[in-house]
Predict the structure of DNA mismatch repair protein MutL.
Amino acid sequence: ERTVQRIAAGEVVERPASVVKELVENSLDAGASRVAVSVESGGTEGIRVRDDGVGIPADQLEAAVAEHATSKIGDIEDLDRGVGTLGFRGEALYTVGAVSRLTVRSRPPSAEAGAEITVEGGEVGEVRPAGCPAGTTVEVDDLFFNTPAREKFLKRTATEFDHVNTVVTGYALANPDVAVSLEHDGRETFATEGNGDLRSAVLAVYGREVAESMIDVEWTPDGGDNRDEDGTGDDAPVQRVTGLVSHPETARSTRDYLSTYVNGRYVTASALREATLDAYGGQLAPDRYPFAVLFVEVPSGDVDVNVHPRKLEVRFDEESAVRSAVEAAVEEALLDHGL
Ligand code: ADP
Ligand code: MG
């Protein structure tokens, strides 16, 4: 039984960054206005995510780490729709607890005292009283201590931290109204203010030069030639494209700074990246890529995100229409700046 559990866990918990992703999603689901992530040695030695969200009442701590603890999925259609959080369908904490030493410590704002529970390699401990601020702190130590095969796949600390950084950056930029911070081995990597301003989040994450070079993107179908049949744009394959893209001179030798979101969800759709790059035409130096934070809204039935829980890939029903909308949106923004 426990072996089955561990194998299943190895499938979904690939590396520290997959754990961080689930924990940050839980914090956002809990309505947090602050999410503080700190990791040791790229997350291989320790992961801590602290939030000021609604918390977990002491009498629900055990259920939170249990199998099928909860399910936000009402029916199978929700799976297909794939908007919002899917995670491991109520099993993220359970799964992480199977392959690490997990502590969940929490206090709902209205509760006088907090409580904590620990899971070690799937063994659930007792709920104990714990002093803590309002909100939830989840600590994950010794990830994969009992799954040596998985542990062997971990890369260098720097590589694991890159993955963690990408995940946390992704959520920080998608949620400018939440103060998101990241710390590695006690040093702050970035901290956003959570003031709701995307440009200010970009400043925190990428620095001043990049933030100042950013150009606003704001596109809707009824403003251009992507109208649908009735001319309203209501059924258009892309409803809206917003965000920021950098001046072509502010570019780097990696595509890592092209962040794209579909219906609020962080995705790595090559179609979106390519469309963005196409919009720059010949304005980028060879092998240089811009910074971009682009939010694309499509009708929820037109996108398939249900490839695999840990994958970020999506497929569009109308890929070419999505491509041309994104290209048009970025082109228009650059044109507005005489580019
Ligand atoms: P899911 O998020 O899919 O429900 P998880 O295993 O990630 O499954 O979490 C189980 C449950 O624990 C959640 O549904 C939620 O009730 C509770 N929980 C987990 N993390 C937090 C958090 N940071 N704040 C408040 N509640 C949380
Ligand atoms: Mg979850």
